[in-house]
Amino acid sequence: MKSSRYWMTVSMLLLTIFAFAQVKNSQTMTVSINGNCGMCKKTIEQAGSVTKEAIVEWDADSESAKLTFDSTKTSEDAILKRIALAGYDNEKYLAPEETYQNLHACCQYERTLKAEENPSAENASEHQHGTVENQEQINTLQTVFDGYFKLKDALVKSDANASSTQASAMLVSLEAIKMDKLSAEEHTSWMNVKNSLIEQSKLIAKQKDLKKQRAEFNTLSTKMYELMKTSDTQQTIYYQHCPMYNDGQGGNWLSKEDAIKNPYYGSQMLTCGNTVEKI
Amino acid sequence: MKNSFKIPGIVFLISLFISNSLLAQKVVRYDLYVKDTLVNFGNKEKRAIAVNGQIPMPTLAFTQGDTAEIIVHNLLQESTSLHWHGVHLPNREDGVPFLTQMPIQPGSTYTYRFPVVQNGTYWYHSHSGFQEQIGMYGSLVFHKKKDDPTFRKGIDDLPTIPIVLSEWTHLNPHQVQRMLNSGSDWFAIKKNTVQSYAEAIKTGKFKTKVTNEWKRMEAMDVSDVYYERFLLNGQTESQLAQFKAGDQVRLRIANGGASSYFWLTYAGGKIKVVGNDGNDVEPVEVDRLIIGVSETYDVVVTIPAEQTSYELLATAEDRTGSASLFIGEGIRQLQVPLPRLQYFEGMKMMNDMMKMNGDMNDMGMKMSLQKMDMNTVMYPEMKPTDMTAHAGHSKQVPKKMDDMEHMQHEKKNEHSEHVEENEISTLSYSMLKSTEKTNLPANAPVRELRFELTGNMNRYVWSMDNRVLSESDKIPVKKGEILRISLYNNSMMRHPMHLHGFDFRLLNEQGDYSPMKNVMDIMPMETNVIEVEANRDGDWFFHCHILYHMMAGMNRVFEVGNYDNPLLPDKKKAYKELQKESNMIHLMAENDFATNGLDGSAMLQNARWSLGTEWRLGYHDMHGYEVETHVGRYIGKMQWFMPFVGFDWRYRKMGMHEEEINLFGEKNTKDNRSAVSLGFMYTLPMLVNFQAEVYHDGILRLSLMREDIPISRRLRAGFMLNSDKEYMLDLRYILHKNMGIRTHYDSDMGFGIGLALNY
C-alpha cells in the first residue's frame, strides 16, 4: 500500500515535471479564481490546463492560481474563459449561473466577484417579501423565523456585527409574540423553548466574537428546530447538519434552501454539510 | 456654337439643382475599394477580400429619403459585384452579375445609385462566385426619419450597434464546393460527426445506423461545411465597453455567413426582438432565436448589473463554434455554451421521416413557420419538460411522431396561457407580428405558384421541383400581379429562401399583421405560403441563400414585366452565363499507389452528367492492366439510377489454355480485350452500388460495390464482387483530406498496401 502510494507520488511528480517541460515560450502570472475545496482545485486545473499549452495550479487558501502558458499558442483570457465555463468566477470572466448551480454542493463557493443583478429583479423579490409579511398575520411566529434566518445569513457571511444586530432584532420579535394567536401545538413548544431562545439571542446580541456567537447559535438552532417542527412554516424548511463543527461533535441549523450554506464556517467551508430533515 | 451649348447646360444644371432641393434629397456617397488581402484566422495566412481595408466591409448608413451613391473600385484580379440585400430598388442596381448587370471588371469603377425608400436593418454582399465567403459582406442601415409616424419611442431612439455574423474556412471555397460535390466526408471528420459504426455500437445505436444506411442516407448533419472560425463583426470575441448598467442597446444583426445559421443567446436575460429583415415587428421577448443565413433581426438587450459585461453568444447551428460580444464594462459574464448535438437522435428522427424512395414523410403533421423544430431531438439542453413530459413520456426523445404533434399543440397552448419557468422560449416565425397591416391590394389578380425544394445530399445537387437553374427558364410575371407562392421543403436540409427586390408577406397566425420578410427559412417537411406584389419591373433572383446550395443550382428568376435593362445588351446570352455558373463541372480523382499496382479513378461531373474512368494497373503482365470508362446520366430526384455507355480495355497475360468462366458459363480466353458496353448503375439500400452491363460480344457482367463504410471516425471499408468471380476488399485510414493509407486484397492482383491520394 505504502509503496504504491510512493510510486504514484513519484509518477505524478514526473508527470508534472514532464508537463512543465512541454510548455514552450512560457509566460507565468498569478490570477484570482474563486473556489472552495479540493474538488474545485481539480476542476479548475483540468479545465484550464491544455497539454503543451497551459498549466494551471490553483491554491484554495488564496483563491488564486498560477498560470504557465505558451504565449504564442494561447492567452490568459482563453484559459480563464475555460475555467469560468467550468463554473469558477475569476478576475476576467464570471461563470454562467446555470453552470455554477450545477457544481457539486461543496464546490458552490461564495460569488464575491459577481455584481447584484437587475434592479427590477430586486423589486420582484421585495414584492415577494411583501406577501410573506401578509402571511405573518396568519402565523405570528413567522417574524421569529425570519429573524432567525437573517441571523443565520449573517453568520454565513461571517459578519459578527450583523449577527449581533440580527440577534437583537430577533429578540424584539420574540418578546412581541402574543400567545393567544398561537395554535395549541405551537403553544406547547413555545412554552418549552421561549426562555432558551430569548437567552441565546441576548448572548449573541451582546457578543462581538464570531466563535462565541456560533456556539450560542448552535444551541439556539436546536430549540428553534423544536419550534418550527410544530409550527406551520408556510414553506419547506431544511434542517441541516455540519459534522465537523465543535471538534467533530457537529452543529445543526435551519435553512429555507436545500443548498448548504454553512453558518459555522462561512466561506471557509461554505458548503460543508447535508440536509438531515425537511420540515 | 460653343455658347449655344453652354446655355442649355446651365439651365439643365439649375433645374437639376432646383429639383434636387425641391425633393430635399440628400445624396450620400460612399467609395468602396475592393482589394485582395491576407488574413490570419489561425496559424496560416490565407487569401481574403477586404473593402477599404476591412472585413466585414464598412457599415453603410443612410436615412430614408436619401439617395445612395456607392462607387465600387475593383482592385481585384477578378470581376466583382455588390448586391443590396432586401433593398427595394430599380432592377439594374440589384447587383447580380449576368442578371441585372455585367460583372464589374478588374481595374474598373462602377456606380450604384438608388433612392432609399425603406428604413431598417439590411446588409450587402458580393454576388460573384464565392466572394461572399471570404470577406465581402457588410452592414447596411437605413435610419428612420425623426418625424416618421412609425417612430417608436424606447426602440428607435436607443443606441444601435450594427452586427454582421460570418464564418471562416481555411479552404478555398471553390475547393469546399468541389469537396461537397464529390461526397468527401472530410468536414464530418473535422467536426467529429462521422456517425461511424463503431460509435453507433458504442452508444447502442447500431440499429439506427443500419436503418439509416438501409434508407440510403449518409451521416446526418445540420450544416455541410466545417469552419475554423465564427465571427461577429470580424472577430471571435469583442466588447462594447461604452455601455453601463441599466442601458438598453439595439443590435442590428445580419447573418452574413455563407452557410451557417446562428443561435443567439444572451447572458443578461431575455432578448427582445423588435425587427426582422428590415421591417418593424411588435416587440417579443425570447430566450433565444435562430438567425437564418442572410436574415436580419433587430433585438434589444439590457445590461442588468454594474461593472459587468454580458455575453451575446452567437453559436453556429452545428455547435462546432461560436462568436461572442460582451456588452457593458467590466468583468465578463459568460452565457452557457450550447452543448454538442446528439446526432444519433437526429438520425433516428430522419429514419422515421424518410420514405424508402427518398421523399420526406411528415407523418400527417402540417409543419410550418419554424413552430416545430425537429432538430430539437438533438438538443441536449432541452429538458424533458420541453419535449415529452406533456405527452406523458419519461423519455427525452419522442418515440412516435404523434408525440411530436402532441408537443406542437402543447407548445401552442403554452404560448397563449403561460410559459413554464424553466422552459427555454425560442422565437419562431409564428411569433412575428407586423406593426402595421400588411394586406396586399384586394383587387389585384392573384397567381398561385408552388415550388418543391428538392435535393440530393449524396451528390450535393440542390434544386427546385427537381430542376437546377440551368434546366429552368425565367418565370414570366405580369407587373402588378400578386404571386401567392407555396413552398414545400422535400429535402433533408433547411433552406433560407431569399427573394431579390421585394418584401414578401409570410402568412402566419397574425392574419392582417403577417410579417413582411425577404428571406424565409424553411425546415425539412415544412410548407409555407408567401405573397408578393410584383410591382417592380425586372429580373429578380429567387434562391437559397446557402452559398453552396445556390452554386449547386437551387435558384429561379422571376421576370416581372418587360424590363429593358440598358446594362445587359444581350440578355439571353447573359442568362446562359448565369445558368452555367450554378452548374459547374467538377473534377474528382483518386489513386492508390499500392505494392501490387495502381488502383484509381477520375471523374468529371455536373448536376446530371458523369464521365468517369477507373483503372487497375498491375506492375507486370500477369496482374494485368484494366481501364473502364463510363459516360452516364443520373436520373431521378435522388439520382440513384445512372444508365451509361462504357468502354473497357484490359490486358492480362493468361497461362496456356487458361480461360475465365463467369457465373453464367460464358468463356473469355483473350489476353487482350477491348469492349463497348451498355449498362446502368443503381444505388441499393445500404448504399451498395449495383452495376449491370452488357458488352458488344454478348458478355454480361454484374457487380456489387460499396465504398466508404464508416467503421470509425477515420477508418473506411469497402468491397466489390462481380459475376466474373472477381472480388476486392479494402480498408482505408484517412490521414488528411487528400491522403490516406489503404490496404486491400484483389482477386486479380493479390494483397496490397499503399498510399491513397485523392483530389
Automatic annotation (TrEMBL), chain A:
Signal peptide: 1-21
Molecular function terms from GO: metal ion binding
Keyword Signal: yes
DUF3347 domain location: 144-235
Gene3D superfamilies xref list: 3.30.70.100
One Pfam family, short name: DUF3347
Keyword Signal: yes
Protein name in the entry: Mercury transporter
Protein species of origin: Sphingobacterium hungaricum
From TrEMBL, chain B:
Xref: Pfam families: Cu-oxidase (PF00394), Cu-oxidase_2 (PF07731), Cu-oxidase_3 (PF07732)
An annotated Gene Ontology molecular function: oxidoreductase activity
PROSITE patterns recorded: MULTICOPPER_OXIDASE1, MULTICOPPER_OXIDASE2
Keywords: Copper, Metal-binding, Oxidoreductase
CDD domains for the chain: CuRO_2_CopA (cd13874), CuRO_3_CopA (cd13896)
Keyword Oxidoreductase found: yes
Domain Plastocyanin-like: 38-146, 162-316, 447-562
Keyword Metal-binding found: yes
Protein known as: Copper oxidase
High-level lineage: Bacteria, Pseudomonadati, Bacteroidota, Sphingobacteriia, Sphingobacteriales
